[in-house]
Amino acid sequence: MRTPGRAFWRSILFVFGLATLVAAGEAQNAFNDGVKLYRAGKFKEAIAAFALAATTDKDHPVVWNDLGTAWLSSGHPDKALSSFRRALHIAPNYALAHYNLGAAQDQLRDYENALQSYARALELDPTLADPAVNPSIVNNKHMVAVHTILYQKQIGALGAAMPPVTQAGDQASRNDRTLRS
Known about the structure:
Elements: H1 6-39, H2 43-56, H3 61-73, H4 77-90, H5 95-107, H6 111-124, H7 143-157, H8 168-180
Helix pairs in contact: 1-2, 1-3, 2-3, 3-4, 3-5, 4-5, 5-6, 6-7
């Protein structure tokens, strides 16, 4: 019996390479379809498209982030949470995924972690605080507290002390007590 020669293995590698290219093309097409569907407000269909892209391209953080955004927009913050965490597992410094993780935590009423996620997002990419870059920032009721957290980190780095802030309302009530004293 003859053992397979070089030509045989080259043909196998060629076929495998084509299969990989086809899979990558399918993932890109599914992702593009997901973006179009999401923009059209068809969130369930977008979820299906992004999920297909994610199964084909498991290590692409943008795919997981966009899948999470579709879950969040369809009213499933718990499912969005796992998608954002997957994106951050792949790319720990992906600022937009941190911001979106904060949005999911916010919807789940996990405010303390939401504040930390928002703060991390703005540390990584301060432009996310600009409404021209991130229109959702305008409606984010936690941004005062987030900026306070970032300020506290800067002050802490200088060796000064400031009371911790967990929510914007907590800080406001502390300020009221301080001013009345």
